[in-house]
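Q: Hi! New to this. If I give you a protein sequence and the SMILES for LCNOYBR7, can you show me the bound structure?
A: Yes, paste them in.
Q: Okay, here:
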Amino acid sequence: MLLGVIADDFTGASDIANTLAKGGMSTVQFSGIGQAVPNCEAGVVALKTRSIAACDAVSQSVAAARWLLNQGCEQIVFKYCSTFDSTPQGNIGPVAEALLDLLGTELAIVCPAFPGAGRRIFMGHLFVGDQLLSETGMRYHPLTPMTDPDIRRWLAHQTSGEVGAIALDTVRAGTDALRGAFRAARDAGRRLIVTDAIADEDLLTIGAAAADHKLITGGSGIAQGLPQNFRAKGRLGARPEIVPTVEGPGIVLCGSCSATSQQQVATFAASHPSYAVDTNALMRGDLPLHDVAAWISDQGRQTPIVYSTAAPDTIADTQTRFGRDAVAERIERFFADLARHLADTGTRRIVVGGGETSGAVVEALELSSMRVGREIDPGVPVLIGDRNGPLGLALKSGNFGAPDFFEKALHEVGQA
Ligand SMILES: Nc1ncnc2c1ncn2[C@@H]1O[C@H](COP(=O)(O)OP(=O)(O)OP(=O)(O)O)[C@@H](O)[C@H]1O
Ligand SMILES: O=C(O)[C@@H](O)C(=O)CO
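A: Thanks. Here is the predicted structure of the protein with LCNOYBR7 bound:
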């Protein structure tokens, strides 16, 4: 293993695994600290740390970094969301600082940019499409409302040291100028450097300039330039994995309620059997899993979707009645139990919508590692795990994917 990634959620892990695989590295996604596998140049450890207390996120992330270093990794990437999901008391700063200490290095880039998904950083401010982050729906996020688009200021709330910044014109001045700017920031005692990037070319320049950085932090975009650093040194050469074909029944499970997921659910449900989970019945204990499993089995050869996706007022109503965390935990457990039951009774292709939902499903399936196949839509690859034989998955971040994503994903997973 040459490059190790610590990702703060499961869909984010498959997002950056996709970038590295596309860059030509033989890539494996691990669910937490895994067991080493052969033929792996980039190892991505998926954690479920995005919304937990900083001290817990630090200890899990440091343990993951230690494991990756033991596998031989020469560079560590800390992957968080391209919308910098965190609170002022959040854990991105503390985890980044703890990793700097562990790696005995002085400086790390902070760059959540992912231009392919519309996330760009200019003058330290994060944009989604043509809007500042704080003017998008992210300001209403239930756990991590992003009310300030200035990443320098947001990060400063989370760190003890002074946050540095490198503007786009320095990035555009080229690799040598950027290296000089990193040195100057380091000499000024700044450890975390918010670095502008608005296009893939910027991320390639940053990747080249950071070839010898032991720690890099960012979204999946920051990984675009990294495989080339290893290739240039003649370090890449793992033989392409022979990925088994995945054949058999499929299912779509969606626990994401984002606007993008709502549209994707509606598109898929227009031509497939669909089952809307009655979350109030689930909370009351009136929705036995075997009823849902029996309904799925009644659909015969058609591929159904089971979803809890709902509009904000419906969600708010259920949360008021039963409590936000209790509802989230119960729905995640429902999808996790259903996925395990289906995988043990013949289902071979599972497409999941939502990061938390994906984490719960993958953990329930006990897939300690998954090979990364080709890209379905930006940021979402095919994953192949093993449970009773090859199992094909796609884990979709709430905001990712085209309206026909679910149909496309079932097809691509089957073509693995
Ligand atoms: N109808 C519902 N009412 C209340 N909570 C729900 C409902 N449906 C799903 N949830 C919960 O909302 C959360 C959705 O989070 P998840 O991470 O899966 O999706 P997302 O936030 O859209 O995706 P991402 O994190 O990738 O952006 C889960 O904890 C899920 O259990
Ligand atoms: O960076 C992103 O936007 C995604 O990989 C993600 O982490 C969403 O949960």
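A: The chain has a mean pLDDT of 95. Let me know if you'd like me to explain how to read the tokens.
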